[in-house]
Every structure is written in C-alpha cells, then in structure tokens.
Amino acid sequence: MKAVQYRTVGGTPEVVEVPVPEPGPGQILLKVTAAGVCHSDIAVMSWTADQLPFPLPLTLGHEGAGIVEALGAGVRGITEGGTYAVYGPWGCGACPTCAQGKENYCPRAADLGIRPPGLGAPGALAEYMIVDDARHLVPLDGLDAVQSVPLTDAGLTPYHAVKGALPKLVPGSTAVVIGTGGLGHVAIQLLRALAPSRVVALDVTEEKLELAGQVGAHETLLSDEGAADEIRRITGGRGAEAVFDFVGASPTVAIATACAAVESDITIVGIGGGAALVGFGVTPYDAAVRAPYWGSRSELYEVLDLARSGAVDVHVETYGIDEAPQVYERLHEGRINGRAVILP
Ligand code: NAD
Ligand code: ZN
Ligand code: ZN
C-alpha cells in the first residue's frame, strides 16, 4: 500500500510502498478514506534528532477516518464495514486520567511507549492504518468522512480550548482568534455556536480573513503591530475576555497578551515557539494563561454532535495521496485555506 512517510531527520515527506499491516489482538485495521494534514507535522519535521521522541521512518497523519476492514482477535463493539473517526491522543486507557477520557493528558503514555498515530505510531496518511484499541474509534454516524476528519484535531483541539474559556464568554464579551487556518477557522465557528461573544479574527492575508468572515467572525484584522490597539479600541479600551492564539509565535503571543482584558483567559494553542511573559504589571490583572494539548475522548463525541447539528462546517481542500508532499509545502507557505484532506 502507499504511505506518506517522514523518513530521515531534516528530510521531506515521501510517498512510499509499505506492506498492508495486520491487526493483532485487540487492534482494528481501518481502510483510510480521509486524512487531514496538520501544521504540527511541520514542527515535528523541523526537530533535530535529539528532539524527536520517536524513531523514523514515521507514517504521518494524525487526523484519520475510514472504514473497518478487519478486526483483530477479541475486538468487541466495532462493526466491520462501519465508518469511524480516530481519536488520536492515545493514552494507557487504565489510569485515573484516562478513566475521565482525558487520554491526551495520560501521565503514563510516554513511559509505556504509547504514541498517537502519525506522531510516533504509524499514522493515517496511508491506504490502511492500525488502530490500537476499539475505544479510539468514534462512529461517524451519518457524517461525511472527508468533511469531518479534521474535527479529530482541527475541531477537537479548539473545542477543548474554547470550552475551558466559556465562563469568561458572557454576553457583551469579546473573543479573539489569532491564526484562522485549519484550527482557527473551526475555532471561530465553535465560538459562534457556544458563546454569545463578539469574535475578532486575525491573520496575515486577506484570503484567510475572508474565510474567517465567511465562517462567522464579526471583525477581521490583519495581524500586525497595530492589531492589539485596534482590539482595545473595538472593545472600548477593555480588551478581549478570551484570546486564542493558533500560531504561538513570539509576535502573536505578544498580541495575545497585549489585547487581553483584566481577568481574561489567554490560550496558546499554536506551537510556534513563542512564550508568554507572565507577571504582575506584565499580564492584565488576574489573566490566566493556558497551553492546552488536543482534547478528551468525550469532547470528540461532543464536536461530532455539534457538526451533526450543522453548527460546524470545515472548509476542506482535497488532494490525492501522491500530492501529499506538495500539500505539506503549501501548508508551510500558508497556501492552504481551511484544512487539506488527503484521500488515500
Ligand atoms: P495552519 O497553517 O492551517 O493555520 C495557521 C494560520 O496562522 C494560517 O492561516 C496562517 O496564515 C496564520 N498565521 C501565520 N502567522 C501569523 C501571524 N503572525 N499572525 C496571525 N496569523 C498568522 O495551521 P493549523 O494546522 O491550524 O495549526 C495551527 C497551530 O496549532 C500550529 O502551530 C500547530 O502546530 C498547532 N497545533 C497545536 C495543537 C495542540 O494540541 N496544542 C494541536 C494541533 C495543532
Ligand atoms: Zn495536529
Ligand atoms: Zn492513562
């Protein structure tokens, strides 16, 4: 079968031929029908050999959906031929954190060598993938795999981020979304569905801002040195009650802290290497800064339910598996609008 692999440190993704895997006891073989392409892979591919926590080659792709092709011994509760989305941040499944469905924060996974598909385990950018346990599969139940596969990360991650800030997002409040790409354009829709707040979106090109407006941002602004002042002006000097940074680079983290209100939530989701300077007189009084990772199993069910209600519509660009290396280039250059989805 074809798979898109990151094979050597500093290299670029390659389409290679590998054997179709066989499901062991408890595992499921999924015929992948859709796989989303996330900007985090570009960060992973920029790491040095010392920073990389898993061996290469790695089959990429941590947003996956598909049809169950075969069940390993002892798998129960999964229908052969059924269509499922893959919950990616696999945990041990047995600790108190995993018992709450928060496998993204499993404290034992790393020690046990358990890693998400596409981020250590073989991922979804292939014709078939192995899913380690039935609990990682969530039925799509009528949702289209291509349209909804980005919800497993580009939906789940902002959902978890937004949910944590909801107590701040009362009527009259303002939410700022910095970076309106794969995650950010879904975040805008989640905010509109879950909160009465005014949503202000920032990005660096008019094309991205146009999509941000289409999916529900009340105001769109270029992300430049004047952006924080403009947000203060729009909010009558108060600033934003919640700021979500889907870039996480130094300039955007600076905007995030500069446009935040007293008692606000500043959530840094992007992994662009920027760090917030926090302290008395530096951040607004009582502002909280969070850097969340992905989301819980139950939150994935919630995001998919929201999509079924029509509240979230991912803007998808589709490509064939042979085009995957170019898709990564386009993503790196900021030339994907919404989310790229590969059809293996
Ligand atoms: P993306 O490339 O689809 O979107 C990023 C957007 O940010 C683009 O629209 C780009 O134009 C915009 N941008 C770039 N520089 C900017 C600036 N200075 N100001 C404003 N906008 C700017 O990427 P994505 O897949 O949506 O991922 C977004 C970030 O979130 C990445 O850093 C990714 O690694 C990270 N991520 C984190 C988690 C987590 O769990 N914390 C999960 C998934 C992705
Ligand atoms: Zn991701
Ligand atoms: Zn665990």
Defining key terms:
single chain, 344 residues, alpha/beta, Quinone Oxidoreductase, Chain A, domain 1, Rossmann fold, 2 domains, seven-stranded mixed β-sheet, six-stranded parallel β-sheet, 11 helices, 24% strand, globular, binds nicotinamide-adenine-dinucleotide, binds zinc ion, metal-binding, ADH-like_C, EC 1.1.1.1, oxidoreductase
Which overall shape is indicated by the principal axes computed on the Cα atoms?
A: globular
Find the structural class using helix and strand composition: alpha/beta
* Beta-strand residue percentage: 15-25%
Taking the alpha carbons of the first and last residues, their distance comes to 10 Å
Helix content: 25-40%
Largest sheet: 7 strands, mixed
CATH architecture of the largest domain: Alpha-Beta Complex
Poorly predicted regions are none
Based on CA atoms alone, the radius of gyration comes out at: 20 Å
- Ligands in the structure? nicotinamide-adenine-dinucleotide, zinc ion
CATH homologous superfamily title of the largest domain: Medium-chain alcohol dehydrogenases, catalytic domain
Number of strands: 16
Tally of alpha and pi helices: 11
Structural features, described:
- With 344 residues, this protein is of the alpha/beta class.
- It has two domains: 2-153 and 295-343, Alpha-Beta Complex (Quinone Oxidoreductase, Chain A, domain 1); 156-290, Rossmann fold, CATH 3.40.50.
- Helices cover 25% and strands 24% of the residues.
- It has eleven helices and 16 strands.
- The chain has helices at 40-44, 96-99, 109-112, 145-148, 156-165, 182-194, 206-214, 227-234, 250-258, 297-308, 324-332, and strands at 2-6, 14-17, 28-36, 58-59, 63-71, 83-86, 128-131, 137-139, 174-178, 198-203, 219-222, 240-245, 260-268, 288-290, 316-320, 339-343.
- The strands form three sheets. Strands 3, 5, 6, 7, 8, 15 and 16 form a seven-stranded mixed sheet that branches. It has a six-stranded parallel sheet with strand order 11-10-9-12-13-14, sandwiched between helices.
- β1 and β2 (14-17) form a beta hairpin.
- α5 (156-165) crosses α6 (182-194).
- The longest helix is centred in the middle third of the chain and has 13 residues, at 182-194.
- The termini are close together.
- The model has no long low-confidence stretch (mean pLDDT 98).
- One zinc ion binds at residues 91-92, 95, 97-98, 106, 108.
- The site of one zinc ion (ZN) has 7 residues, from α2.
- It is an enzyme of class 1 (oxidoreductase).
- Its cofactor is Zn(2+).
